[in-house]
Structure formats: structure tokens, C-alpha cells
Design brief:
By secondary structure, the chain is of the alpha+beta class. It is about 35% helix and about 20% strand. The chain is built from 17 helices and 20 strands. Strand 6 and strand 7 form a beta hairpin. Its EC number is 3.6.4.12.
Length: about 500
């Protein structure tokens, strides 16, 4: 709010685009026009405007005595519905020896044009007038540029201490920024993040997107920012809960866990004999398609709600439901041919980390992989309005081969049914990914994570996770430089 000393300085200056003086106390139209013009801030200076009641044009006081009635009259301008959007203003009485001054301090609106009774008022120097078509266009364009998506808005109350800065430096920035540019960038971390849209310098705090992606505890500020997995026995939620897990924490760390969970616990690859000498690997739910559907839900969800992403598994299907219906220009009629992004900064970060592609091809590839695996098309449900749901059926090939049960999820096996005869190789327990990693290292100790991922038909993040597990258990270790070193096997897996 303006101080008495600042007001004295204003009174001695001439009127300008952000100062108007008047001795009138009952010309409400004039007051509203001035407040509307200050709100529009046509020059784009960002300065507050001051309507000063009780002073002549030369700055001398009129001897006004400000009473409660006048204060209430000016204060009611904000909420009487004649100026829309509502102006951001404060009203204060300041007393001098020669009389009182009533000051209405008006902040520039972030969503111009502001209208008084349907007209757009602006100030050109010391005078105000109705905006021309060109001036109104300028204000409209400014409004569009000021509208931020939720992930770009400041997460008020947070600081840099709420972010995992070491992870950002170690893992994210080297992927998001060219190596030579990053080496020359000597700016503090907040300015570097601001350049990527993850820090708001005006409010000196991280954005909502930064908290979701890198926050030490995102749920503290965005209560629904987690994925809830539940395995129900049967075909609806009335069945017993066999397994559940909550993927909370920031996305950069949880996406690795989700990726691995889908690959090791949901996909469930099985060899199916096609002939005496040939087998075909079929998954209960294909890894890439299931991963893509869940990653899209995380990327496109509404983070303003307290509801999580629901990842529910039943005997015959998986359902993924994310808060927030179709966004922007996407509709049931044009889906999936048209794309729009509710969280563009989160989407860009997930692309940088390798979890999505942002080329509007994901749904087509999902449908193709599901058909090839025997699951049929994914079903998209647009009827929930405030949520979006996709249903993935269990693979028919998987069940036809006799793999209708799974001990890890507690599925009931087919009662009193003898196992079908099949070649010995098909009956063997499939290797787990860590055992495969050991065999790959044994054959090539100098192999890179990327090469491992290609051989395993997996992702570098999943391989990194399992390498970390094997290292922590003392089974393997890495000697030498990151790129030029080699892997050493210390213990063999049973």
C-alpha cells in the first residue's frame, strides 16, 4: 500500500498514465473509468495506478473530510459487477493538516481487457479514453500470454529446499540442455530452472510442475499427485484386494519404479509353443502398451484435484483412470487424431526423460501391440466428464495357453485341471531380468546400459534400477570410468 511520503511525492508531480487526481466525491462513473483504465495498463509498465480523491490538479488538497460512507462507496466499486474481471485494488484514507486524501490503488490485471459496463477504458498519458480496436487487440494478446497452465503456475509456499536439486543437476539438466551450453551457464539454479519453466522469479518459488517432477514431497502441496495400484480378485471392486501399492514421490524417481513394476509384475511374459521347434512369447498385458497408457494418464491428468491416477487390475482387464477429462481442443469426435496438453512442461520433461514421445502416435502403437498380443483394442471411456478411463483386456492367447493363474497376484488356478503337455523348454520357469543381466555381463563385461536395454527389450531406466539392486546386494560391481570401465561379477545368482 502507498505510504504517506510516497503520496506527498505523487501530489507534487503532474498527472500521468498511472495517476489521476480529482476533488469530486460523487462522480462514480469517472472513478470507475479510471480504475478500469489502470487495470488495463495499456503501456504494460506493470506499475500500480492511483486514483487520488481530495486533491486539485496542481496537487493542493481540497480540504476533504473522508468519512465511512465515501470509503464504502469507493470500496464497493470492486464488487458491484460493473467492472469485469474484478479489479485488484485497495482503498485507504490518509490524513494531512489541510484535509484528508482517499487513495484507491489499482494493480494491473493479468487478464485484460478489463471492461466497465462493456467498454474498455485505457489511459494515454494523463487522459483516459475508450480503447481503439488496435489497442483492444494488444490487451487481448497480453491476456493470452499471461494465461498459464497449472504446471507453469507458482507453487506458493515452496522454496528451492523443496526440490531435489542434486537430482536436477545430475540427471535432468544434462538431458534437457546441450552439454556445451550447460558448461557455460553460470547462473544460479533458480534462474536456470526459470528458463525451463520450472521456477517463478516473480514469486521466488518453484512451479507446480517442478514440485511434481522434482519435489522432495509433492503430496504435501499437491495431495493427489500419486498413482494408486490395486489388484482385485474377480471382475469388479467387490472382490478381495490381493495386492496394492502407492507410487508416491516425485515423478522423476517414481517413473523408474512404475516402469519396472509394469515390466516385472504386470506384463508377465510366457513362452507359448507354436510348433515343436518354435515358441512365441506372449504377455498377459504387453509391456510397452500398458506402460504407454499409464504414462499418458500421468502426463495428461489434472493435478489440481486430490484424486490419484487409478491403476486397477482385475481378473480379466486393467483399468487406468486419470482425473481430468479430455482437454482443450481434444473431443471424443477427434480423439486420438488431435492432441493437446494440460501440462505442457510436465509433458516436455517426460519426453526428455524418455517416457513419452509427444508425436501423437502413442495410441496407434498401443492398439497395434494389443492386437498382436491377443488383447484386442483398448477401450476409451469419455463418459465420466471429470475423468478419463481406458480399459485393456487380458490377452486371449495368454489364457488359451493355460496361463490363467499367477502366483504373484494370488489368482486362483484352474481347479482339478491337469497341466497341458508342452515341450520342456516351455515349462521351464522364465528367467528374471537380473539373472539375464548377469549372463549378459558374463559374455561382455564392457557392455553399456543402453546396449543391455536393447538386448533385454527393456528401457535404460529399468536396467539402471536392476544394476543398482545387484550392486547393492554385492553381486556385481563396476570398475573404472563410467564409459570406459567394465562390470565384474562377484557372486552368482542361484
Amino acid at each position: 500500500m502507498i505510504t504517506k511520503e510516497n503520496l506527498k511525492h505523487i501530489l507534487t508531480n503532474t498527472e500521468s498514465y498511472h495517476i489521476e487526481r480529482t476533488i469530486s466525491i460523487d462522480n462514480t462513473d469517472k472513478f470507475c473509468q479510471a480504475i478500469c483504465a489502470f487495470s488495463n495498463d495499456l503501456p504494460g509498465s506493470g506499475k500500480n495506478g492511483y486514483l487520488i480523491i481530495g486533491a486539485h490538479d496542481n496537487g493542493k488538497l481540497s480540504g476533504l473530510k473522508v468519512d465511512d460512507k465515501l470509503l464504502l462507496q469507493i470500496s464497493n466499486i470492486r464488487t458491484d459487477g460493473n467492472i469485469l474481471p474484478q479489479p485488484l485494488m485497495t482503498v485507504e484514507k490518509i490524513s494531512f493538516e489541510d484535509g484528508d486524501i482517499l487513495v484507491a490503488e489499482v494493480q494491473p490485471s493479468e487478464f485484460p481487457p478489463v471492461r466497465y459496463r462493456g467498454r474498455v477504458w485505457v489511459r494515454i498519458g494523463p487522459r483516459k479514453s475508450i480503447a481503439s480496436e488496435a489497442e483492444e487487440k494488444i490487451l487481448t494478446e497480453r491476456r493470452l500470454s499471461n494465461i498459464h497452465t497449472f504446471d507453469a503456475m507458482p507453487c506458493l509456499g515452496t522454496t528451492m529446499a523443496d526440490l531435489d536439486v542434486s537430482f536436477i543437476k545430475r540427471e535432468f539438466l544434462p538431458k534437457a540442455v546441450a552439454e556445451e551450453v550447460l558448461a557455460e551457464d553460470k547462473r544460479p539454479m533458480d534462474e536456470q530452472l526459470a528458463s525451463l519453466g520450472f521456477y517463478d522469479l516473480r514469486y521466488n518459488c518453484p512451479t507446480n510442475g517442478a514440485i511434481v517432477l522434482f519435489g522432495n514431497n509433492p503430496e504435501r502441496y499437491l495431495h493427489g499427485s500419486y498413482v494408486q495400484y490395486v489388484r482385485f480378485k474377480g471382475k469388479d471392486r467387490a472382490g478381495d484386494i490381493i495386492n496394492e501399492h502407492k507410487f508416491s514421490g516425485n515423478l522423476c524417481k517414481e517413473l523408474v519404479k512404475i516402469d519396472t513394476f509394469i515390466e516385472t509384475s504386470i506384463s508377465q511374459k510366457r513362452p507359448i509353443p507354436v510348433s515343436v521347434l518354435r515358441e512365441e512369447t506372449v504377455s498377459k498385458y504387453p509391456y510397452w502398451a500398458t506402460r504407454e497408457l499409464l504414462m499418458n494418464a500421468i502426463m495428461h491428468r489434472d493435478y489440481e484435484t486430490n484424486a490419484p491416477v487409478q491403476f486397477y487390475e482385475y481378473d480379466d482387464r486393467i483399468e487406468v483412470q486419470n482425473p481430468g477429462g479430455l482437454y482443450g481442443k481434444v473431443s471424443p469426435a477427434n480423439f486420438p487424431n488431435v492432441s493437446d496438453y494440460r501440462n505442457p512442461f510436465i509433458a516436455e520433461a517426460m519426453k526428455i526423460l524418455g517416457y513419452v514421445n509427444r508425436f501423437s502416435r502413442g495410441v496407434y502403437r498401443v492398439q497395434k501391440e494389443l492386437k498382436e498380443n491377443g488383447n484386442g483394442d483398448a477401450l476409451f471411456d469419455f463418459s465420466l466428464i471429470t475423468a478419463f478411463r481406458v480399459i485393456e483386456q487380458v490377452s486371449g492367447k495368454y489364457f488359451d495357453a493355460g496361463f490363467g493363474a499367477d502366483d504373484n497376484h494370488g489368482h486362483a488356478k484352474k481347479a482339478q485341471e491337469k497341466p497341458k503337455k508342452s515341450p520342456r523348454k516351455a515349462q521351464e520357469k522364465p528367467k528374471n531380468i537380473q539373472a539375464e543381466i548377469i549372463e549378459i555381463i558374463r559374455s561382455n563385461p564392457h557392455i553399456s546400459r543402453k546396449e543391455m536395454a536393447s538386448l533385454l527389450d527393456s528401457t535404460p531406466y529399468s536396467v539402471k534400477y536392476h544394476l543398482g539392486q545387484l550392486t547393492n546386494k554385492g553381486i556385481i560391481k563396476h570398475e573404472g570410468a563410467t564409459k570406459a570401465g567394465k562390470w565384474v561379477i562377484l557372486l552368482n545368482l542361484d
